[in-house]
Amino acid sequence: MKIVTIHHNGEAAALFRKIGVDPYGISAMTPKTRHVNILLSARPCKIANILKQEMLSLGADAAVSRGSVSCAVDATDVLLMGTHKQIVALAGKIEKQPFGLDGIACDLRRLLGHLENKPLVLKTSRREMLLGDRTLIMGVLNVTPDSFSDGHRYFDRQSAIDRGLQMAEEGADIIDIGGESTRPGAQAVSPKEEIARVVPVVEQLATKLSIPLSVDTAKARVAEKALAAGAEIVNDISALAGDPKMAGVIRKASAAVVLMHMRGTPADMQQGDLRYDDLTGEIISFLAGAARTAQAAGISRERLVVDPGIGFGKTYADNCRILNRLEEFRTLGLPLLLGTSRKAFIGAVTGEKADRRLEGTAATVAAAVMKGCHIVRVHDVASMKKVAVMTDAIVRAGVTP
Fold it and tell me: Domain of 151?
């Protein structure tokens, strides 16, 4: 006998066929093979008690505060514990009940849909990109004098253009061009200076490359100029909060946008109290809010990517925890980008300086791919391309065509 690991419905169906289960049985039993734990935060006791009883009636369970039965507490978190099939059944049982349970039923169905390994489509101003069949590589091109790992190396315009072309040859799927350092303690650069650094490089690369270009900026003026010059994606570390005009610029250009989580600004994000009550829960909630803001501003959901912001207002241990629990971000149902390349938390573990963190970065890229990341943002494109390709092969080895 052995323990069988089932990651998705396709693996379950393949195993049932090998056993010789009839088609109806395969359909009926596949949702029973996958257990899910779903946390609902701060729900009124009357809702928690209904959910508890309904889950028990299905042969599943729900964890609630012990004070919730007597309503000795105002609200309680609720942890639903059951198979995919039991959660679907729960949604069916509560969808016509009062107290907002119909909304919970709708949210449960949506969340379960997000857990399926279905490819996602990212739309930019010039193309549609399929995400999920393989991990995409976003190459980092810093046109700055002070970036933490390669400052000044590509500050010269021609050097930056040459490096962009080289990254494309090495297998980059996207090139992310930035004119302002976002390392901890970095000082802001004026829009005029940032435009002078970034736009000429974008213009040149856009005429020479067929892959999409991204501009790493939180300033609307910079984004507008870069998009007009040929960029298709805005990588905004402020998640549209840094410039009130940014959303309008992105909408008008029909660009895609990366929404990143950060507390504070690069100048102060690593100062003060970095503690989180619920690390991934708070980040997911922030990114969900940023996505709603973007959609309310007219940016379609198919143009959104989320980034948990490794190194931006987190402790070194928090960065590792985010990587360990990256699968939880599937709750959002949006493409996930991760940027760990050469960052300080890797140095804290390995003891290496920024330019010697290749192996540590490789470990984080492999972990990100294993946990379902769609895009990895890296400096060392050629090496990380190989890491991603090999990890993709492992992850997808059990997928039935």
Answer: 120-398
**Residue from 32, 29, 98 nearest 59 by CA:** 32
Confirm whether 251 is a catalytic residue. no
Question: Of 225, 303, 314, 377, which one is the catalytic site residue?
Answer: 377
**What tens digit of pLDDT does each residue of 110-159 get?**
999 998 878 899 999 999 999 999 999 999 999 987 555 555 565 588 99
78 and 193 both lie in a single domain:
no
Query: What is the DSSP secondary structure assignment for residue 338, as one 8-state letter?
Result: E
For residues 218 and 101, membership in a common domain is answered with: no
Same domain assignment for residues 82 and 126: no
> So what's the pLDDT on residue 218?
96
Question: pLDDT of 383-400, one tens digit each?
Answer: 999 999 999 999 988 665
Average pLDDT, the chain: 92
Q: Which residues contact 398 (CB under 8 A, 6 or more apart)?
A: 7, 10, 11
Amino acid letter, residue 201: V
Same domain, 385 and 325: yes
343 noted as active-site residue = yes
197 & 143 share domain: yes
Which residues are paired to 131 by β-bridges?
120
Task: Choose the catalytic residue: 343, 357, 371, 385.
Answer: 343
